Amino acid sequence: xxxxxxxxxxxxxxxxxxxxxxxxxxxxxxxxxxxxxxxxxxxxxxxxxxxxxxxxxxxxxxxxxxxxxxxxxxxxxxxxxxxxxxxxxxxxxxxxxxxxxxxxxxxxxxxxxxxxxxxxxxxxxxxxxxxxxxxxxxxxxxxxxxxxxxxxxxxxxxxxxxxx
Length: 164
Hints:
Layout: H1 4-7, E1 10-16, H2 22-34, E2 38-44, E3 69-72, E4 75-78, E5 85-90, H3 96-106, E6 111-115, H4 125-131
Antiparallel strand pairs: 1-5, 1-6, 2-5, 3-4
Helix pairs in contact: 2-3
């Protein structure tokens, strides 16, 4: 017998006790992505400044933050934040133990995994402003940054899941 909880997606938050370096974040996301069943991924944390915000070098570009990339599937995404949390939407609850095992293998420090509602399921005001009344791909709901100056702030890694 198939129940509603067997077919619903589940959303979790991975909260490491430290910020992740870009190479650690890359290895962890590779390990998580290999397990499959990922519908959405968001990395969250404080912004990496592009220019020195104060002091004698105020206004000078910070070169060490330039060209930090995360590669998922066949796309490279510019890393603009210190990775402090990873939000995932999985296709089933059975995938959580695989995620926990990947985190235990890749992170040399403690972390917590919480199950909670993170992503929007209905269009937000920003979605209406950007896309109008109907959104064809439900995976992008709530993923728009209304203050973003760049048009492309996210990547769609596959063509599946248009109604999830």
